[in-house]
Amino acid sequence: MSELSDLYQELILDHNRQPHNFHGMPDATRKAEGYNPLCGDQITVYLKLDNNRIQEVSFEGKGCAISKASASVMTDEVKGKTPLEAGSLFEKFRELVTQPKEDQPDKDELGRLAVFSGVSEFPARVKCATLAWHTLHSALEAQKGVTTTE
Fold it and tell me: How many domains does the chain have?
């Protein structure tokens, strides 16, 4: 296995067992629910926005290891960012997990998110990896209704 594959396995397992920011947020200024009908993953993303920055972000839900790990890492990565910066990171992450390896964004720009690059080899898992991100986008846009990966 490559070093990136080893990191991927380790990160997924660690964040699945002990996800970061895995709790509700009663005083959230934004909230969105997400659902992946393909595998049944469900997530709620909570945001506390202040001065055009994501001051706090958390999530709750149930799902596979990839879904939970992606949500966990996402919360770490977007905290402190502006909605525009978080949106840009979402687009880069989506490219990372949907594009062939040669077309993926620069992994140095993505930091720890780069370990998810292997998801692109498993199209059925892309929706698991992106559910939290789509739900974050819905929360940032204050969209109503349940966000789906379809």
Answer: 1
